[in-house]
Amino acid sequence: MSITANPLFGISITVIVYAVMISLQKRYKRVHPLFMTSIVIILLLMSLHIPVENYQQGGSWLTFILGPATIALGVPIYKHADQIRRSWKSILSGITVGAVCGLLSTGAIVLLMGGTSEMAWTLMPKSATTPISMEVSRMYGGYPELTAVLTVLTGLMGSMMGPSLLRLCGITDETAIGVAIGTTSHGIGTARVLKDSEWMGAVSGFSMGLTGIWVSVFAMPLAWLWN
Predict the structure, then answer these.
(1) pLDDT value at position 214?
(2) Pick from 129, 32, 148, 31: nearest CA to 73
(3) pLDDT of 6 above 80
(4) In the predicted model, what is the mean pLDDT of residues 116-137?
(5) Can you tell me where the transmembrane regions are (predicted)?
(6) pLDDT for res 2
(7) Contact, 25 vs 31, CB < 8 A?
């Protein structure tokens, strides 16, 4: 059996590259570890002609850990549950408006640019977490595999530029930033703001969970009106 087909290969290369990127980020603040790790691994597999199936032998183990890691985002929500309850009106309204606007604006842009309904449904659920966005895409005629890629890219872009862009627009309130990032950039964005503030991470994690529900719920009447 080739060494690249060993599950330890995929795990080792991912952990090593990510550790290097974390070290680089300490010196160069603009380096995004997750984004750069993805780029380096893709280039490595392409340059060494390593089949992605071989890498996935170990990569799938890391993917499995995403489940417990996502659940762990509930810890700051639990710790700040009382504070979230006190601000539930503003948080809930922000999540609702964000989820609805995300669906409507994305669908409208795709259709105005001449895209098909299939492509619209591929893009529209990208603000939800990957499992939910893929299922919504599949239910209404989109391309779930492409939806998964776009959902991850949305999370990456939001985590890289979201907090800075919001502050550039004069939005400095931690609750508002948490809602905005959680509603648009799901787990990747939540992990990013959690580094800055546990409260922002709690609000973002709560927003991420509720956005997944809202996208699923609001997609139904949209599909009915569309047809």
Answers:
(1) 93
(2) 129
(3) no
(4) 89
(5) 6-24, 31-52, 58-78, 90-114, 146-166, 202-226
(6) 66
(7) yes
